[in-house]
Amino acid sequence: MIQIKENIETWGNDFEDISIEQIYEQYQIAKNFFESKEDLQIRIILCSNKEELKFFTGLKEITESTTGRAIISENIIVIYTPKAIEQNTPKKKENFRGILTHEMIHLFYKKNNYPQKIQLLNEGIASYVQWVVVNKKEFNEEVNLYEINLFQEYSKEIYKKGLYLINFIIKNFGKKKLIDFLEKIKNSSDDKIEKTFKEFFIIDLKGGIKNDR
Ligand SMILES: [Zn+2]
Q: Between these two residues, 204 and 111, which has the higher pLDDT value?
């Protein structure tokens, strides 16, 4: 069955209690975060079980931390239904909205041409919107930002580190400054990105590329 609202098309065998209005609401949250004027034509595939998720994501392995995936080149989001989240991962079905918005953020991040290779920002923003904006969680932990490496390679801990970094930036400098920064680094070299980061947020992150490569 396919349900359509505006630019969002959603396919699923079983929509459970997900409404297309709710999906569209999550889309608006992602769009508003980036203050995007343009809409994205998005297709969402709801998966009721592991086999479906594996088939539609094309992932070789589905672990219990896999809840979905954004196929950014096609503007497609493959995601577990709320029930399937609860059956196949340690997360609760209430996490569905946050996870969906997380994946939508990746599509906007790509559309805006922000640097894909900085996964810390990409996953950090997606996780920030998921937990702080959608799930209304507050993060007040002290984090040693100097330990964070902007160019760190993808790993499991990148989500938490990225979230803390984005949380810090938004709390201290506001979201507009974060967006201004992303706009500024669109076509920059790694060295320039690091320099711009320091200029914008006055944090000297751990050596970045120089120490890590
Ligand atoms: Zn992500």
A: 111
Reported as a single tens digit per residue, the pLDDT across 103-126 is 999 999 999 999 998 999 999 999
Q: Which residues pair with 11 in a beta bridge?
A: 2, 45
- pTM over 0.70, yes/no: yes
Does residue 202 carry a pLDDT above 90? no
Q: Rounded to the nearest whole angstrom, what is the distance from the C-alpha of residue 145 to the centroid of ligand 1?
A: 21
Find where tokens 């889309």 sit: 27
Question: Ligand 1: distance of its center to the CA of 106 in Å?
Answer: 7
Six token digits for residue 6:
């505006």
Distance 73 CA to ligand 1 centre (A): 15
Residues with Cβ within 8 Å of 81's Cβ and at least 6 positions away in sequence, in order, are 12, 14, 15, 16, 18, 46, 47, 48, 96
Domains, the chain, in order of start with CATH, read 2-111 (3.40.30.160), 119-212 (no CATH)
